[in-house]
Amino acid sequence: MLLPLPWISEMDFSDPTPYYYLLLGICLLASLSSWWIINSPFGRIVAAIQDNESKLEELGYNTSLYKAVIFAISAAFAGMLVHFMPLWLASYLPLCLALSFLRKS
Q1: Angle between helices 63-89 and 94-102 in degrees, nearest 10
Q2: Domain assignment of residue 21, yes or no
Q3: Predicted local distance difference test score (pLDDT) of residue 1
Q4: Residues 52-65, mean pLDDT to the nearest whole number
Q5: Rounded-to-integer distance, Cα 70 and Cα 24, Å
Q6: How far apart are CA 64 and CA 41, in angstroms?
């Protein structure tokens, strides 16, 4: 079940100013949550996995679980930002998304 967000559906995206502030808020939220994750005990364990995974396994940490959770978090960040890309391109066509990366300058 999706929750309706009336303040987003009422925004007029023909003017880029509201879209800019919406994306600015999302980027600030993503930055703050990334900072919180990095400085939390969870983030320290993930950093320790990057340094020496076998030592953490010997200490009893389930490194596969931590890697799966951090992968899901990174996928959520990527998915959240890719969701707003078609609004910027003004099209939801998959061909437009593919060609925007292949276009030569």
Answers
A1: 100
A2: no
A3: 42
A4: 92
A5: 23
A6: 16
Domain count, the chain: 1
Tokens of 96: 């437009």
**Residue 11 located in a structural domain:** no
53 in Cβ contact with 67 (< 8 Å): no
Q: Which two tokens stand for residue 73?
A: 């978090």
Q: How far apart, in whole angstroms, are the C-alpha atoms of residue 86 and residue 70?
A: 26
* 90 assigned to some structural domain: yes
pTM across the whole model: 0.64
Range of the domain at 89: 26-102
Residue identified by tokens 């959770």 is: 69
Higher pLDDT, 91 or 37: 37
Three-state DSSP class for residue 7? helix
Express each pLDDT in 12-49 by its tens digit: 666 777 777 878 888 898 899 999 999 999 999 999 99
Structural domain contains residue 16: no
The percent of residues in the chain predicted with pLDDT above 70, rounded, is: 67
86 phi/psi in degrees, rounded to 5 = -65, -30
